Amino acid sequence: MVRKTILKRASCSGLCWCWNCVQQPVVFPFRTFAHPWGRLRAVNLIKIGRWLFSVQKEFGYARVSTARQHEDRQVQALLDYGIEERNIVVDKESGKDFNRLGYLSLKEKWLRRGDTLVVKELDRLGRNKAKIREELEWFRAEGIRVKILNVPTTLLDCEGQDWVLDMVSNILIEVMASVAEEERVKIHQRQAEGIAIAQEKGVVFGRPVVAKPDNFEMVMALVDSGQLKAVEAMRELGVKKTTYYKMRRSFLRAAGRV
């Protein structure tokens, strides 16, 4: 999509619409230009329009923990609520922190004072109770409203009684944030227990172990004596560099030389 920009004199304060300062809309990248009337800079016309007319928008956010999971259920709930599809951002990352590409893009580039962020469930925002609280406080300070579809009090508008809704919402969010964090702890605990049981049954995780070639001991002896270099030893054993050095370390460790 082409971004339309206007030219504005850097020396002017605020928004000046005189002919000397603002020229006809043109398409330019965001950089400084030389001009007979002084240095000019490009100003994003979309941002100026939103600032002038105080357009308030609603954005949706959805998150799943892995690329194999599907966000369809969350996206459909946001669409049903009335969020435009182009205003929905999806992340496929863990909820342990908020360093997610889509979420940071929402905070830093899209959301403005007066806008609203909508999520289906609180744990889709994150699973760390302390960080959830920090993010909600940041949104409040920036004048951005957060609506959580499974917390009905965050969806209500009650003029003059906002403090009551805020109080109830804060209590519900505190409880749900604790539940989300506890669920994350349980997930890790279940994973650890599953891995331990699998290992007891002989299941091996990671890459399969490469069997040592029949001539491994002879090649190691030649390497130790200096008759073979590492590259030649890899060729004799028929293994790759990483596998060779792993075998070499195991050999030296078994011999008590490391």
Brief summary:
The chain has 258 residues and is of the alpha/beta class. Helices cover 45% and strands 12% of the residues.
Order of secondary-structure elements:
EEEHEHEHEHHEHHHH
What is the number of beta strands?
A: 7
What's the total helix number? 9
State which percent range the strand residues make up.
Answer: 5-15%
Report the helical percentage.
40-55%
Give the integer mean of the pLDDT values: 75
Account of the 3D structure:
- The protein is α/β, with parallel strands linked by helices.
- Helix content is 45%, strand content 12%.
- The chain contains 9 helices and 7 strands.
- A hairpin with a 6-residue loop joins β2 and β3 (40-44).
- The radius of gyration is 30 Å and the shape is elongated.
- The protein starts with a strand and ends with a helix.
Which labels suit this protein?
about 260 residues; alpha/beta; 3-stranded antiparallel β-sheet; 9 helices; 7 strands; elongated; disordered N terminus
List the helices and strands and how they pair.
Layout lengths: L4 E5 L22 E2 L6 E5 H9 L4 E7 L7 H10 L6 E5 L8 H10 L5 E4 L2 H4 L3 H13 L3 E4 L13 H39 L15 H10 L4 H8 L3 H14 L4
Parallel strand pairs: 4-5, 4-6, 6-7
Antiparallel strand pairs: 1-3, 2-3
